[in-house]
Amino acid sequence: MAKAYLQITLKINPSEKGAVTGIYNKFQDAFLDQIKGAIAMELLVGDEHVQLLHVFDTAEDAHVFLSTELFNNDILVALKSLAVDTPEIRIYTVL
After folding, report:
1. Could you say which of 4, 20, 65, 86 has the lowest number of CB atoms within 10 Å?
2. What are the two backbone dihedrals, phi and then psi, of residue 17, each rounded to the nearest 5 degrees?
3. How many CB atoms sit inside 10 A of residue 34's CB?
4. Which of 19, 60, 21, 18 lies closest to 41 in space, CA to CA?
5. Three-class SS state of 44
6. E-only strand ranges, the chain
7. In whole angstroms, how large is the CA radius of gyration of the chain?
8. Class of the CATH-defined domain 4-93
9. CA distance from start to end of the chain
10. pLDDT for residue 35
11. HEC string for 11-32
12. Which stretches in the chain have pLDDT values below 70?
């Protein structure tokens, strides 16, 4: 059972939905294969926002992911060019 969620919310221009989907598809396997405690990753697409939900074994695994090279040098760099605002990042624990 999943114990923690990392939620990244981005405000984007509607025309960028395809680009966000491409980034999601590009990094999904690396996330699942390389990141400790990674269980799943989901992309939620709205009119002007997208949310990337990362599911982890523990909240600690989610916090550690935020300091990885994959997140900071690959995923975040790719997403920043599409974001209208600063990404909102939250971690939730399942009780």
Report:
1. 86
2. -55, -40
3. 13
4. 21
5. strand
6. 4-11, 38-45, 49-56, 88-93
7. 13
8. alpha beta
9. 11
10. 97
11. EECHHHHHHHHHHHHHHHHHHH
12. 1-2
